[in-house]
Write a structure and sequence with these properties.
- It comes from Draconibacterium orientale.
- This is Outer membrane lipoprotein-sorting protein.
- There is one protein chain.
- This protein is mainly beta.
- It has a domain at about 15-55 and about 100-200: outer membrane lipoprotein receptor (LolB), chain A (Clam).
- The chain has helices spanning about 15-30, 100-105, and strands at about 35-45, 50-60, 65-70, 75-80, 85-90, 95-100, 120-130, 135-140, 150-155, 160-170, 175-185, 205-210.
- Strands 7-8-9-10-11-1-2-3-4-5-6-12 form a 12-stranded mixed β-sheet, with helices on one face.
- Strand 3 and strand 4 form a beta hairpin.
Length: about 210
């Protein structure tokens, strides 16, 4: 979830330049972080289907490697930067696939802070105080239909210059939201933490799409 400008006609306004400046600063700051962990709230909303769900989760990121855990949903996602493992506790099943397309990149949390540099344009919306925090609100629009999204709304914590929340509007009508609760930018992880270990899941069904 993450970056740049709106429709390109009269769109390269001063506000667009402001959005780019903010995003560039966030990107530069996060690129200095070797690894991080965070707790967050994940939401999915679809008004047409009367769906409104929220679930707590955690994430670990090290370079392009990541591990996402959503305990209430029984979902674990691992990636070592080349391969993605999606494990579903309900059914004890894991699917394995390669990271080889733009859609995979969009779902890669490690690209959250830089995806706007390739394929998205931004529009500065407003600066607003919410819950005692001053946030920059920026809307991101894809340059092409390569991504299955129509818009990404990003809120940046002005004091920390880190992403506070993001909402992805999918072409299928779903809205996926992430609200960061706590973040540790000094976390250290072993590479093995970003690979699914079948030995930890007896009789797991493995579906390999590679």
């Amino acid at each position: 979830m993450v970056a740049l400008v709106m429709v390109a006609t009269l769109g390269w306004s001063q506000s667009d330049a402001k959005a780019k400046k903010i995003l560039d600063e966030v990107s530069a700051k996060t690129k200095e972080i070797k690894s991080m962990s965070a707790s967050f709230v994940f939401s999915m909303v679809n008004e047409e289907m009367d769906i409104d769900e929220t679930n707590a989760g955690t994430i670990k990121i090290k370079g392009q490697k990541y591990c996402v855990q959503l305990p209430d949903l029984g979902v674990e996602v691992f990636s070592n930067g080349e391969t993605i493992w999606n494990y579903m506790k309900d059914g004890n099943q894991v699917t394995i696939s390669n990271i080889d397309d733009e859609s995979s990149e969009l779902m890669d949390p490690s690209s959250l802070f830089s995806i706007y540099e390739r394929g998205f344009r931004s529009e500065f919306v407003e600066e607003k105080t919410e819950g005692g925090k001053t946030l920059y609100h920026i809307n991101l629009f894809p340059d092409s239909d390569s991504y299955d999204v129509t818009k990404i709304e990003v809120a940046i914590d002005k004091a920390k210059m880190m992403i506070h929340s993001a909402t992805l509007h999918s072409t299928d009508g779903n809205q996926y939201g992430i609200l960061v609760k706590e973040m540790d930018t000094n976390a250290g992880f072993n590479d093995s933490e970003f690979v699914f270990n079948a030995a930890n899941h007896a009789d797991v069904e493995i579906i390999d799409f590679r």
